[in-house]
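Reply to dn_fold:

You asked what the input looked like. This is it:
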Amino acid sequence: MVMENYFKHLRSQIGHEEIIMPGVAGILFDETRTKILLEQRGDGEIGWSLVGGMQNLNESAMTSLQREFKEEANIDVAIKALIGIDTNFHHTFPNGDKAQIPMTLFEVEQTGGTLHADGDETTQLTYVPLSSHPKMYNPQHQLAVDQMIRQAPYGWYF
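and this is what came back:
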């Protein structure tokens, strides 16, 4: 996990204790709107996820997500819509750090760049059919994908 200086400082003070770390993730559909972009993680987590990450200090949720897409997938995105929010997910990272991660989920569209995994946090990028019920590395991302499969109206929250 790439960690901003703000979180590094907090961790130096409190160790692995649980903190609140706001997260963002994006749904990028293919041109048929039947597949979504997923990334295979290379940051110590095992499995697939939506493109996303932590909101840094002095960033909005939208600019954080745009930064994450540029860093991890080498593409520029525009925010199309707020899909939903999950507020009570608790996670322990591979290094033992604990966090409650309220995640804001957006639909995005590609506006530039060429899709390419960064080789660090992201080892592979692929569009996966929603009909295949993709399995995510954590329950929060699984919730987001399941909501998309169910065609839940935008604006959901948990």
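The chain has one domain: 19-157.
Hope that clears it up.
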